[in-house]
Amino acid sequence: MRLTRALSAALVLLGLAAAPAAADSSPSASPARDGDAPTTAGTSFRTAAEFEQGQVATANGAAGDYLYWSFPADAGQRPTVKATVKLPKAHAAQTWRVDVYDGLRRRQACQWGAQARTADAGTSSVELACVLRTVRAWTEPWANDPLPGTYYVRLTAVNVPSSDLGVPVSAEVRADSKDIGGAAAVDGSLAEPLVPGIAVTSGAGAGDEEDRGAVLSAIEPEDGWSSGWWSDRWVWSGIGAVLAALAGIGGYALTRGSGRPSRVPPGA
To answer: What's the mean pLDDT in 13-30?
Structure first.
């Protein structure tokens, strides 16, 4: 009975300790504040419109244009980018494509999702999706793993018939992330996130180089960038250590017996 009560109390404590870790593995996204979301898109990486995860960025453009947005993604997140393009009533078949690049402007492969789709003539809209790999806190220099920082979304139509070039369209883009937690933790972290400069300030005078500097992207996760050393893997490691200790105590209690029988003298 004493052993049973001890095991029950330990399981309750483990459940309380595991609750934060379980919460970390649930889907997460910044609160949507569509009023602050951009209503235009950039035409290059340097002019990409910034938006936060959970927001719906919109833009009007034309078939044949390149539309760019950017959003932040932190270590342990698995971003999903979704795009919807609304087409006019009269148009020929068009193939639309969404691509995602990291802060070093390296194209990131999609794990799954309809990254490119063809809208047949008369189709009113086309929906695209790209689920990226989990963002890592650190990686080898030769690897192409996604790293924490800015991510660029490029939306465009490919192989557009000449008759449809310039046809007006409207687009919506949204990015959300699932928090993978300790399963994606690595032993290392970046000194700084990949948040490149989007512009350069100019000095007061002509040719004044001392006052020139890069203007960094203003977007970052709501709770700031993670340091990279803490993850719920520490919690599960502690739980494993406690369970191992309890297993040892239980095994000893079951195998040690009831002690020396009363009929046997101490010196026997």
So the answer is: 43
Residue pair 177/82 in contact by the 8 Å Cβ criterion: no
Percentage of the chain exceeding pLDDT 90: 39
Structural tokens at position 182? 């300790």
- Provide φ and ψ at 3, rounded to 5°: -65, -40
Between the CA of residue 209 and those of 85, 201, 213, 215, 217, what are the distances in Å? Answer: 43, 10, 8, 15, 21
Distance between CA 117 and CA 92 in Å, rounded? 14
CA–CA gap between residue 68 and residue 139 (Å, rounded)? 26
pLDDT (tens digit per residue) in 24-58 = 433 344 444 556 889 999 999 989 999 999 999 99
Euclidean distance between CA atoms 228 and 148, whole angstroms: 10
Structure tokens at 122: 């008369």
CA neighbor of 92 nearest in space, from 177, 163, 20:
163
Average of per-residue pLDDT across 71-85: 93
pLDDT digits 0-9 by tens, 96-123: 999 999 988 999 999 999 999 998 988 9
Within the chain, how many helices (H) and strands (E) appear? Answer: 2, 14
* Amino acid at position 24, single letter: D
Q: Which two tokens stand for residue 85?
A: 């393009």
SS3 20: helix
Q: What is the DSSP letter of 194?
A: B
